[in-house]
UniProtKB/TrEMBL annotation:
Residues that bear N6-(pyridoxal phosphate)lysine: 314
Radical SAM core domain span: 88-299
Cofactor(s) of this protein: [4Fe-4S] cluster; pyridoxal 5'-phosphate
Organism, scientific name: Pelovirga terrestris
Annotated family: Belongs to the radical SAM superfamily. KamA family.
Annotated [4Fe-4S] cluster binding sites: 102, 106, 109
Keywords of the record: 4Fe-4S, Iron, Iron-sulfur, Isomerase, Metal-binding, Pyridoxal phosphate, S-adenosyl-L-methionine
Domain of life assignment: Bacteria
Name of the protein in question: KamA family radical SAM protein
GO terms of molecular function: 4 iron, 4 sulfur cluster binding; isomerase activity; metal ion binding
Length: 355
């Protein structure tokens, strides 16, 4: 067993472990973890300074997750799934769901309904169906491995997937979405990085949300990847009481550049069922972008985007870029359609899919 696999086995997975370590009452959290699994790696739990701090909020269950406001599948991914392991929303690129497991389960996850659930495990057959689908559509030039977290797969399984995708003539680039540089930096080994290098051009978007996540271990993991030619970007989710202030966001963006990770997206929280307590008004993100432009290098300024409900795609927002009509917040899609976006948290009150 490799070190990273041993660390994964040592993860916190029960409310009793949380109670023992932090002195909390576990009883209110039992119903939450029965619906949404708990897993926190040793590296990440060690970053918690106190109950309720920004690291705690991201990984520890909260009874507010039982509130049903929002959508189980806010981006209508099921609608855009021609086969179970594929999400094909844009003509030239697809997401291949390589796994439904992660090193740690973020409480704000877009795929909260699936991650860590045995019911939604991605089978070998479904992976192969997904690769066959990609091979059969010559429009697809960009394949994004997501999940769950693809880097939770053993090296041999991951390489088999990469080799099969890389061999498809019309696929030009492969991207991987992974939070393990943050939550399980031990997973980023020299052997893994050398293997990934063989499938260039390969891009990896990771997921730092707070400057305290920029640890020496995470920086070392990113250095191993970059030194093997893997291009690193970061997708931050804007989270209430985690990173929704200028000081925190500025420190995060500057810190990412120092470890050779380019800030790519700042995401407005998706309208995911059980996550309303994390959501901020759209104006919060716009104010942050306005505030960091100038004081922070342009290299460190991400695109602020909203992934619109119903699978309408990502819409970039700029300061003063919203429009309003009849008391509604309107966002313009890439197709020029104006979409009514439920910006006031209390209006997101149904648990049905928006597609």
């Amino acid at each position: 067993m490799e070190l990273w696999q041993q660390r994964l086995k040592e993860s916190v997975t029960t409310v009793e472990e949380l109670a023992q370590r932090f002195g909390i009452d576990p009883e209110p959290l039992r119903e939450v973890t029965a619906r949404y699994p708990l897993k926190i790696t040793p590296a990440y739990v060690d970053l918690i300074g106190e109950v309720g701090d920004p690291i705690w909020r991201q990984c520890v269950p909260d009874v507010l997750e039982l509130e049903d406001g929002g959508y189980a599948d806010p981006l209508a991914e099921a609608h855009y799934a021609p086969v179970p392991a594929i999400i094909h929303r844009y003509p030239d690129r697809v997401i291949l769901l390589a796994s439904n497991n992660c090193a740690g389960y973020c409480r704000f996850c877009t795929r909260k309904r699936k991650v860590g659930s045995s019911e939604h495990a991605v089978s070998f057959r479904e992976q192969r169906e997904g690769i066959n689908y990609i091979a059969g559509d010559s429009r697809i030039r960009d394949v994004i491995l997501s999940g769950g977290d693809p880097l939770i797969l053993p090296d041999a399984v991951l390489e088999d997937l990469l080799a099969r995708i890389h061999a498809i003539p019309h696929v030009e680039i492969i991207r991987i979405g992974s939070r393990v540089p943050v939550t399980l930096p031990e997973r980023i080994t020299p052997a893994l990085c050398a293997m990934l290098k063989k499938y260039a051009p390969l891009y990896l978007n990771t997921h730092f949300n707070h400057p305290r996540e920029l640890t020496p271990a995470s920086a070392g993991a990113c250095a191993l990847l970059v030194d093997q030619g893997i291009v690193l970007g970061n997708q931050t989710v804007l989270l209430r009481e985690v990173n929704d202030d200028v000081t925190t966001m500025t420190e995060l963006l500057r810190g990412l550049l120092k470890i050779r990770v380019r800030p790519y997206y700042l995401h407005q929280m998706d309208l995911v069922q059980g996550t309303a307590h994390f959501r901020t008004p759209l104006q919060t993100g716009l104010d942050l972008i306005r505030s960091v432009r100038g004081p922070v290098s342009g290299l460190a300024c991400p695109h602020f985007v909203v992934d619109l409900p119903g699978g309408k795609g990502k819409a970039p927002l700029l300061p003063d870029g919203l429009s309003y009509r009849d008391g509604k917040t309107l966002i313009t899609t890439s197709d020029g359609e104006q979409v009514d976006y439920p910006d006031v948290l209390d209006t997101v009150s149904v648990a049905n899919d928006p597609a």
